[in-house]
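Reply to dn_fold:

You asked what the input looked like. This is it:
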Amino acid sequence: MNIKQASEQSGVSAPNIRFYEKEGLLTPARRQGNDYRDYTAGDVRTLKLIRMLRMLDVPLPTIKAVLRGEQPLQQALQAQQTVLEQQAAHLAAAMQFCADLARQRPQAETLDVDACLTRMEKPAVQGAFCSGWLQDYRTLAQVQHQRHFSFIPEGSINTPQEFTAALQAYAEEHGMQFSLSKEGMYPEFSLDGILYKAYRNPGKYRDEICCDAASPEQLNTGLPSRRERQLQVLRILLPAAFTFAAILAAGWVATGGADWLWLAALAAAGVLLGRGFEHRL
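and this is what came back:
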């Protein structure tokens, strides 16, 4: 078959076929009389193999070594897997850096570029499994706080003006930029560019102000979905585990035995139910 037919059957363009021939990856037979290339079914299979390996980003020298029998295909694939894993790790770190930086709503004029470059150029620490999980946990906690948060204002909230003043005080205390778009007992406002709606939760002694992001779906962690689900479960379980351990340790010290085990379990269950209910809200 001619080069056009070989291209159609293999999915490799004619220019690439000529390039692979030039690089020594393919040597088709020549027709007697006109010296035209005559591609066989074996040549088409070789082209398909080259195409497959190139789709895996296997370098041409490696492909050439495989085709010549100088390197086993399994060995070449294992080596390429290692390369791709390293590239994936670099890409994941870059994606996480972009997500972390974007959440800070940076401005080109004020961004601390030196600090960013230092963080980006710092080599990854081997065995930093715990620190990676801790950083992701902090990221999740930060985003969940951005989606919903509450605080206790100074004094009661009885008028829209008092509501606005409480929101302004909260923003000033936390160094956040506050902008009011709708005043009232259900005000709408923004903190550092994130739009919120707020409402008052009356208490017996003190009022509580609850704030919900207007578009929580736009506030994402940038983490893989599986990692985020695992961290959400961890965020629910950790307070209960710490409560159980603290009460059990205190009871052990006080009584010298496990008499407080039931109290620790009861308290931990209460914390766990509370966090689970809070998470579902």
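Residues 3-71 form a domain with the Multidrug-efflux Transporter Regulator; Chain: A; Domain 2 fold (CATH 1.10.1660.10).
Hope that clears it up.
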